[in-house]
User: Fold this.
Amino acid sequence: MLKAEGKSVTGRGRAAARFARRATLRRSLRLLGSFRHEQTDPAHFYGGIAADSAEMIADFYADVSGRALNGAVILDVGGGPGYFADEFAGAGARYIPVEPDPSELHAAGLSIPGAVRGSGMALPFRDGAVDICFSSNVAEHVPDPWLMADEMVRVTRPGGLIVLSYTVWLGPFGGHETGPWHYLGGEYAARRYRRKHGREPKNRFGESMFAVRAVDGVRWATRTSADVRTLFPRYHPRWAWWLVRIPLVRELLVSNLVIVATKRA
Assistant:
């Protein structure tokens, strides 16, 4: 059980049952090993993350709704260049990415029908427009990630699924390409990267990357109007999910926090 600001958030076993069976050590090692390709071979890295994300979303959607992804409308907040599109389309879902930066939409040379340019903090969709609202590794790039989380709840239909996954600042990947020097401060890490590589990092602290903590997600989970089903560390095997319950430890070891919720009717 997680408790913050007077409200408890309890992970529900049934809501995580399918995905928990896949959350093995082998999966964890495969995903963590792919991080070395993020800058040199993004298609390899994001392709693997996309496949895992589609399976994760399908598992949670089946557990909370009893349905497969076939026919579901999925909004991917911060969908970027569209590496996730084929995976969700292959499952029969209608995939809609929303991205504020047009250069990111076309970064990989992919064309995604129905892609929308817009801010995650003011999603250009009506209330209850989608079956599933998903965001992967985007919250740490948003000045107000919890406004974005509230927007994700707003645009999801009653009974629909919300999955927010983000990189924890004090985890080993918190500084992205500037790590592990981010432990000495985001600005220092950015300056060091510039001195070493002769260019600014893609993820510039204070501009396109921000320090988002695990406890921030826990606190949002206690105040949101959505029904939070579970919180867990994305890249850990099931037997290590207890780390989310321990303050300070979760900041250092969780690496990526996933919040799974359904919208109340």
